[in-house]
Amino acid sequence: MKKFTIATFVLFAVMLSSTTNAQLFSLGVGGGLTNVVGSEDFTNKISEDGLGYSTEWNMGVIAKLGLPLVPITPRAFVLYHTLNGSDLSTEELLTKGNAINQTETTTSQSILSVGLGVQYGFIPIPAGIDPYLAIDLMYNNFGEFKFTKWDGEFEQTSEGVSRFGLGLGVGAEISIIPVLNIDLLVSYQMMNLIGKEDGESSLSTLTVDAFLLFSFL
Fold first, then answer.
1. What does the buried/exposed string (b/e) look like for 178-212 if buried means 16 or more CB atoms within 10 Å of the residue's CB?
2. What is the distance between the alpha carbons of residues 193 and 99, in angstroms, rounded to a whole number?
3. What phi-psi label fits residue 52: left (phi over 0), alpha (psi between -120 and 50 degrees) or beta?
4. What count of other Cβ atoms lies within 10 Å of the Cβ of residue 86?
5. Of 15, 37, 73, 150, which sits 20 to 30 A from 90 (CA to CA)?
6. 91-137: per-residue pLDDT in tens?
7. Which helix (H) or strand (E) holds 2?
8. Neighbours of 53 (CB within 10 A)
9. Which domains does the chain have, with CATH numbers?
């Protein structure tokens, strides 16, 4: 019994030591793609009473704090999204020669997302791949919305708003060297889940991101 107790203590001490010496704090920088998937008020063409949003770039930073002997990792991030739409309308002018007039209409807006959440790690796959599930609560600041007709005659803007959202994702950290990982994440984000006004459409996005993750401590 005494030998078993000593062996158990030694094993626990080795595990704790190896965990304590691991890199606990990680900071990453990167970006990827933001694909607007709903609702139709955002994805339809401008000529069909939508905003014409589709796929644009995003960029940001992410931080993670590893917890000893626990598969749960707190995480925080700041991500900047750009959303743009454009449409070309054609009008036949009943003038001399029946000329054709084409007018480009554009929409633009940005979203600054500040998120806080956790990720749950699965059993690591050999070759240094650590898959995980993630859930994030987000504060989303929608920037000024701009609607422009490029005939030099019309431009409309509206003030930005703030909403709370929820993100659900699946990702993996791929080890490159002991202090450097590549963090890949695919996330479904409900950008204005909380705080919508009456009649406000839901904005949902699918983001695909990659971060260079540097470990410290």
1. eeebbbbbebebbbbbeeeeeeeeebbbbbbbbbe
2. 47
3. left
4. 15
5. 37
6. 555 554 555 667 788 999 999 999 999 999 988 777 789 999 999 99
7. helix 2-20
8. 23
9. 23-216 (2.40.160.20)
